[in-house]
Specification:
It is a single chain. This protein is an alpha/beta fold. The protein has 16 helices and 11 strands. It has an 11-stranded mixed beta sheet with strand order 1-3-2-4-6-5-10-11-9-7-8, sandwiched between helices. Strand 2, helix 4 and strand 3 form a beta-alpha-beta unit. Helix 2 packs antiparallel against helix 3 and helix 10 packs across helix 12. The structure holds glutamine. The site of glutamine has 14 residues, from strand 4.
Length: about 475
């Protein structure tokens, strides 16, 4: 009997190799389960049944013929609906892209295809990845599998919920301010955002280009490493894509070296307003590190308090330029109108939801002549100071430990009409996007029936191996 809830990438790979099951069998099981379970969770916006089953048949044929199969062969994955897969819808959960079908594969999808992964479907999100609850989708509200009266977090809530509810073995999301790590923490799965430039953004619908990164959802830290190894790497089609290559220690950590890492705990991330249960859970992780003989010390990141303000200037500025391309002409359906201006008004007016409009207007304002220096230029300078805080801290420590979210998963509707409360959800995650650093959200162990809590490990640029290795050490201990 195949137990979907126990399938990790690693176990799937072993089972397939030992012929305990076929890729087709597993894919069919997933679709049968999704049909029932997703009525309750609503993680998926569209399914790719035919494509996935065809892919599974090819994999099974390769296994039968004794050919060597690639590392993610047949692994059933869910993909956030901002990442293009040729021939499948890519709506960004926006009405303005409701009828859009992707004409090409994103860089990260090309890599996943080459590694043999199969795509179960496209997952729900806050429109254009703007939000922290997945309630701001134009199409549906996703629920937290741990308690369906709660939000799954966002913006990649569909991907997080799909993995948490066993409707996918792993998933991709995007993280501009916390959209992978926060829903991972809320749903009790592992979510990693790598260093800026580690994964191609080509073919990923842009929100804020200097902050956006593709990230992974998985059930274990080990799976996060396996998946990241496959999708990281240079893409000539993305000008910000780095040429760094990752070594074997990403997937096979040397735990002797991991035990030698020094962990820093920044006071600025244990602030008033943070749920006491979260603070004590993360302090518990700190103590566990200490019992594992890992050095832990207090550090300071003094500019942290400005991060949210900086983010809500830089991000909307980039949003306003990125969203300008949805002019009613190039993508989706065109409104009937008398003249060009009217076409813009109608298409953008009807096609974009409240949050993308709010941010486009804010962004246009902070970039406008007369305000540019006061807001945008100043925010960029403070952004550099935030980055500098981390540079200095990393002279002293190798990894930084913090909470992921200031609150436990909240009720559906609780913050939906209060943007400021919603924005505060990302207070501990956006600093990494501003500084371009890798971070991983890992579920705190031993919570039993209590709601999940995540802790965050932050690494030096290109040192994903440190946070993955330490995460695995914690996971296994
Ligand atoms: N919740 C944050 C926002 O609304 C982050 C979104 C994201 O990372 N895509 O902007």
């Amino acid at each position: 009997m195949i137990k979907l809830e126990e399938l990790t990438i690693k176990k799937f790979r072993e089972g397939l190799a030992k012929k305990e099951f076929s890729a087709s069998e597993v894919a069919r099981l997933f679709f049968d389960y999704i049909e029932v379970k997703d009525k309750e969770i609503e993680a998926y916006l569209s399914l790719n049944r035919d494509g996935a089953l065809e892919r599974a048949r090819q994999i099974d044929a390769a296994v039968a013929s004794g050919k060597e199969i690639p590392s993610l062969a047949g692994v059933p994955m869910a993909i956030k609906d901002v990442i293009l897969i040729e021939g499948l819808p890519a709506t960004a959960a926006s009405k303005i892209l409701e009828k859009y079908v992707a004409a090409y594969d994103a860089g990260v999808i090309k890599k996943l295809k080459a590694a043999g992964a199969l795509f179960l479907g496209k997952t729900n999100l806050d429109e254009f990845a703007m939000g922290s609850s997945t309630e701001q989708s134009a199409f549906k509200v996703t629920r937290n599998p741990r308690d369906t009266s709660l939000v799954p977090g966002g913006s990649s809530g569909g991907s997080a919920a799909a993995v948490a509810a066993d409707m996918a073995v792993a998933a991709l999301g995007t993280d501009t301010g916390g959209s992978v790590r926060q829903p991972a923490a809320f749903c009790g799965v592992v979510g990693m955002k790598p260093t800026y430039g580690a994964i191609s953004r080509y073919g990923v619908i842009a929100m804020a280009s200097s902050l956006d990164q593709v990230g992974t959802f998985s059930k274990t830290v080990e799976d996060a490493a396996i998946l990241f190894k496959e999708i990281a790497g240079h893409d000539p089609k993305d000008a910000t894509s780095a040429t760094v290559t990752y070594g074997d220690e990403l997937v096979n950590p040397d735990f002797h070296k991991i035990r030698e890492l020094t962990v820093g705990v920044p006071e600025e991330y244990f602030i008033e307003g943070t749920d006491a249960e979260i603070i004590s859970a993360v302090q518990g992780v700190m103590k566990e590190f200490e019992t594992l003989k890992i050095k832990v010390k207090k550090i300071h990141l003094p500019h942290t308090k400005y991060a949210l303000s900086v983010y809500y200037i830089v991000m909307p500025a980039e949003v306003s330029t990125n969203l300008a391309r949805y002019d009613g002409i190039r993508y989706g359906e065109r409104a009937k109108s008398e003249n060009l201006l009217d076409l813009y008004y109608q298409d953008r007016g009807n096609g974009l939801g409240l949050e993308p409009k709010r941010r486009s207007i804010l962004g246009t304002f902070v970039l406008s002549a007369g305000y540019y220096d006061a807001y945008y230029a100043k925010a960029q300078r403070v952004r550099a100071l935030i980055k500098q805080d981390f540079d200095e801290a990393f002279l002293d420590v190798d990894v930084i430990l913090t909470p992921v979210t200031p609150t436990l998963p909240f009720k559906l509707g609780e913050k939906a009409s209060d943007p400021m409360q919603m924005y505060l959800s990302d207070i501990f995650t956006i600093t990494l996007n501003l500084a371009g650093l890798p971070g991983i959200s890992i579920p705190v162990k031993g919570r039993g029936d209590k709601l999940p809590i995540g802790f965050q490990l932050i690494g030096r640029p290109w040192h994903e191996a440190d946070i993955l290795g330490l995460g695995r050490y914690y996971e296994q201990s």
